[in-house]
Fold:
Amino acid sequence: MILLDTTTRRLQILLGGVGAIPFLASYVDITTATQSITAEAANTGVTNGVTPVDLIGVPASGIVRQVKLIWIKNTSGGAVVATIRYDDNGISRDFAFSLDNNDLIQYTDGEGFRLFDSTGKLKIQTSAASGSLTVEEVDGVPSVANVTTLRFDQADGFIVSNPGAGIARVDLTAGGASTVYRRWAMIFGD
Structure:
């Protein structure tokens, strides 16, 4: 949940030199006195590539603004880094997302931020102290056979196996040692 609970807090987007990409943001205003919804609203626009643009502006006094949806699609024709800024009277908390062309950032209240590729598939990356794992599937058919790439940020110390029943198991070991300290099970099913 993202709350803007003072008259100095707002959400912004910036792209740093890249032109205009579209966004949509919706929210509800809740009065602090009665905890009732006083307004529902949406803001649409485009970035400008130079300065931060408000996704959701500051609430009025006595109002808590609850963010419900943010939708940002990279239509620039190339890769960009989109930064969502929680601005609190000039004190910024930035969250950057690397977007390929036609990737989509979506925030929904209750699920948080998610990143989708140009085909609408959820982009997933998990990480551990030893590295990170990215699974790519090329044809949309969920099966272990269709996992084409396993990428790690360190080259050694992992074992990929298929114990059957549609499960690919990835064991990461410390520098090739036999002790497993992190395990992912990727389950593909119908």
Notes: The CA atoms of residues 3 and 66 lie 5 Å apart. The chain has no helices and 16 strands. The chain has two domains: 3-116, 125-187. The chain has a mean pLDDT of 75.
